[in-house]
Design brief:
alpha/beta, 15 strands, 37% helix
């Protein structure tokens, strides 16, 4: 049950919804009876919810009524999901029946991804201003439906009567998956997209390149896959593993249908070991790109434009992080370039390159993204900075004050390769400053620092979890490290601060555990001890364990 504190927190949010409900009731003698203290198993928690006694019965005779292309696309997706879950779908059309219908209504007063949902006994009404709003309303309806085991084909689905008004807190609600260190292909990526979309997340960041492997086909530079994609962190001598251009387009279409934008990343000028192996003439030494070599820079520019095209996105991430332990000043070609540019050292050279890349992307009509190290170099203000170094809050503060848009990905809260418990295996790249990245720590984290002004807070686009794969080399462990923590990230990205409630979230998770189990997706079982976990989930201990 939702705690009394939760009810107090959402009172302000539901006031306007209550007025609408009361006005409707005044014109309708059949006033619905509210279910006191009801918890609806919806993740992320909506802005305002009221549950009522009774159900809407969804079946193959239900008519979904639409009047626009956007409404029809959302309806078609909903019907495909019903066909997969229950083996039947609804009727569709442009005229409503008196009973047993779902009516989609355009309401341009609502925000882009917002929706209003009224589930009555005879009709469901969805109001939204965009296709994504209708899509998220349908996702909420599916979360309210009974959990199906896939064995039976029920002729009817009972949906709890309710009124819901909902919109996201942040417009960027994302996850990163690193497919370089260990490769995860289209099937794994699509499974992640499904879970993200079901929980109203809308950005999937693909870390496509790193020292370990280059994982995307670029036909003009065949050695990137012929040589650069060989092996992984576990087996450097392994086979070639990469996403073809055709697969990239298929993944993109799949994601876009579910209102997830793909954010491709080519990580340069550091993290370029795969480029070095494929094209030694482009090497800057010690896993860096030779940024003095115009042919190398031309290759990167070609890759950036190709990634935008393949993944149908205006955002391209060019990395810019951890350019360490190199000796550019000891390489004649690079030293000569520094002198021509009148740069005093290799750090200034790095800054020159970051500015050049950001300017190139902006001038190409695209939006650059870079890791927060790039903020030191005065790069183009059209660049979105991704803050990951949690031990440097001053970097976040100054970036927001200078007017950069920012994605929050602090390592000590949102890196899902970090352990949930210090007795379990996981990464420890920048130290475990806050202890383990447990689901509770993620959920209770405050994304916006108290020191931020309203203007600075407005620069925060949203949040993005990082699923780095140095210590994740198989699907079972990938799922274990991702779920259910990703659902906490989803709620942090969508739900308003005053609706965050840890006890309610835990209760709402119970239905999600059922769904994951039926879908055959592994997840970290809650509330079991270490010895029991060693027996039931040995994948929890596959990797380094903090001392």
């Amino acid at each position: 049950m939702i705690a009394s504190t939760m009810k107090g927190q959402i009172t302000a949010n539901i006031f306007f919804l209550g007025i609408i409900t009361l006005l409707t009731a005044a014109c309708n003698p059949e006033v619905r009876q509210e279910k006191a203290d009801a918890t609806l198993s919806i993740i992320p928690q909506p802005s305002a919810v009221r549950a009522y006694e009774g159900f809407f019965v969804l079946d193959s005779l239900t008519q979904v009524v639409f009047h626009s292309k956007e409404q029809r696309k959302a309806t078609d997706w909903f019907n495909k999901e019903l066909q997969s879950l229950a083996r039947w779908s609804c009727h569709t059309g442009t005229s409503a029946k008196e009973n047993n219908s779902i009516l989609l209504i355009q309401d341009d007063s609502l925000a882009n991804e917002a929706y209003q949902l009224d589930i009555g006994e005879d009709r469901i009404t969805i109001k939204a201003s965009s296709e994504s709003g209708y899509f998220y309303a349908f996702q909420t309806i599916l979360q309210l439906a009974p959990v199906l085991d896939g064995k039976d084909s029920p002729s009817k689905l009972k949906i709890q009567q309710a009124t819901i008004s909902d919109e996201p807190r942040f417009k960027w609600r994302g996850a990163l998956i690193d497919i370089s260190r260990h490769f995860f292909g289209p099937q794994s990526i699509k499974q992640l997209i499904d879970q993200m979309a079901a929980h109203k997340m809308n950005r999937l960041h693909l870390h496509l390149t790193d020292d370990t492997g280059w994982r995307i086909e670029i036909k003009e530079y065949p050695k990137l896959i012929e040589i650069g994609s060989l092996g992984d962190r576990t087996n450097p001598n392994g086979p070639s593993m990469y996403i073809t251009e055709k697969e990239a387009r298929e993944i993109t279409a799949y994601a876009n249908e579910r209102h997830v934008m793909i954010i491709p990343e080519v990580d340069i000028p550091g993290h370029s070991g795969a480029i070095e192996r494929a094209y030694p003439e482009f090497s800057g030494g010690n896993n860096t790109l030779n940024i003095a070599n115009e042919d190398a820079v031309k290759m990167i520019e070609t890759v950036i434009l190709r990634l935008s095209d393949l993944f149908h996105t205006r955002y391209v991430h060019f990395g810019g992080d951890e350019v360490r332990h190199h000796n550019w000043e000891g390489r004649p070609e690079m030293l000569a370039k520094m002198k021509r540019l009148k740069l005093k050292d290799q750090r200034e050279f790095e800054g020159w390159f970051d500015r050049r890349m950001a300017d190139f992307i902006v001038e190409s009509g695209l939006n650059p993204i870079a890791w927060d190290e790039a903020s030191d170099f005065g790069i183009n203000k059209g660049t979105t900075l991704q803050w990951w170094r949690g031990e440097y809050p001053e970097v976040l503060y100054s970036a927001a004050k200078e007017g950069y848009d920012i994605i929050l990905s602090p390592v000590d809260f949102l890196y899902l390769d970090y352990p949930s418990n210090l007795e379990e295996a996981g990464a420890n790249w920048e130290g475990l400053h806050n202890g383990p990245n447990s689901m509770e720590a993620i959920y209770k984290w405050n994304p916006i620092p108290e020191t931020f002004s309203d203007i600075m807070a407005a620069r925060i686009l949203g949040v993005e979890a990082g699923i780095w794969t140095e210590f994740i080399d198989n699907q079972k462990r990938l799922e274990y490290m991702t779920y259910p923590r990703l659902f906490a990230v989803a709620e942090k990205g969508w739900t308003a601060k005053n609706n965050i409630d840890w006890e309610s979230f835990q209760e709402r998770l119970l239905k999600q555990y059922e769904k994951l189990q039926i879908q055959g997706i592994n997840f970290r079982i809650p509330d079991i001890g270490t010895e029991e976990r060693k027996k039931r989930q040995p994948e929890a201990f596959d990797g380094p364990i903090a001392e």
